[in-house]
Structures are given as C-alpha cells and as structure tokens.
Design a protein that fits this description.
single chain; mainly alpha; Globin-like; 6 helices; globular
Length: 157
C-alpha cells in the first residue's frame, strides 16, 4: 500500500495549527464513544496526550522509512498489551482519531484527506497489532542466573 504522504503531512499541519491540543479532543471523543476504555487510563490523560502527540509527529516525520515504522510501531503494539489494549480497541481509536481530525479540519476534510488518514491509520494499527501478537506469542525470557547487575552508566558532564 502506498500512503499519500503529502496529504497526510499537509492535513496534519493544518489540524495542529487550528488546534494544538488536538490529542485532548481525541481523548474526549474516544471516551464519549467508547467509555469502556476509560479505566485503562489514570485520572489524567495529560501525559498520554503528550505521548500521542509525539508519536503522531514521529510517524509523520518518518512515514517513508518502512523499517523504522515497522520496528517502532510493533514495539509500541507490544507495549500496549501490558496496558490491556486488545485488537478490538484499535478500530475504536481509529474512529476517534478520524473524527477528531475531521472536526478540526472542517471544510479541509475532503474525501482524499479522509482516505489518506484511513489508509495510514490502518497501516499503523496493523503494525501495532502485529507487534502485540508477537509479544503474546513469545514467552518472556528469564535473565540468566549468573547475570550480574548492570553497572550504573557514567554521569554526563
């Protein structure tokens, strides 16, 4: 699948310009539509909002680097298993993300933009779910009994 990189980047820039706190709105929509996910989050989503913003920026910055995307998103998917995220939840997140982008983009949310984001989210979610499956299929490795504790890293000047 070839992603429409230009459309993704241009539309994201527009959305961020219009609403720098777009991830806050994303979580509002996610919790309104899918209240069953609320318990996965603490009392505040502020930290999660910041992490999501950084993740979206990083993905869009490196979207043409397939190896990086695969490695990063599979690792992220594996990590989300520990948070209680299931395959069922990925479409919910996609729904909330697209709704957020559409709400903020307003008239700039064209069929082309919608298709670009639908394809991109599908690819991202697919890699994350792939990482989650790998994490649940491979048993955790125990450290060797003779392993010594790691030395503290040297302090930076």
């Amino acid at each position: 699948m070839t992603l429409d990189v230009t459309t993704l980047r241009e539309s994201f820039e527009l959305v961020v310009e219009r609403s720098p706190q777009l991830t806050r709105r994303f979580y509002e929509i996610l919790f309104e539509r899918y209240p069953q996910v609320r318990p996965l989050f603490g009392s505040s989503t502020e930290t999660q909002e910041q992490m999501l913003t950084r993740a979206l920026v990083a993905v869009l910055d490196r979207i043409e680097d397939g190896a990086w995307l695969t490695e990063t998103l599979e690792a992220l998917g594996a990590k989300h298993v520990d948070y209680g995220v299931t395959d069922e939840m990925y479409p919910w997140v996609g729904d909330a993300l697209l709704a957020t982008l559409e709400e903020i983009a307003k008239d700039a949310w064209t069929p082309r933009v919608r298709a670009a984001w639908t394809d991109a989210y599908g690819a991202m979610a697919g890699l994350m779910m792939q990482g989650a499956r790998k994490a649940t299929l491979s048993p955790p490795s125990a450290p060797p009994a003779s392993r010594q504790p790691a030395a503290s890293p040297p302090s930076m000047p």
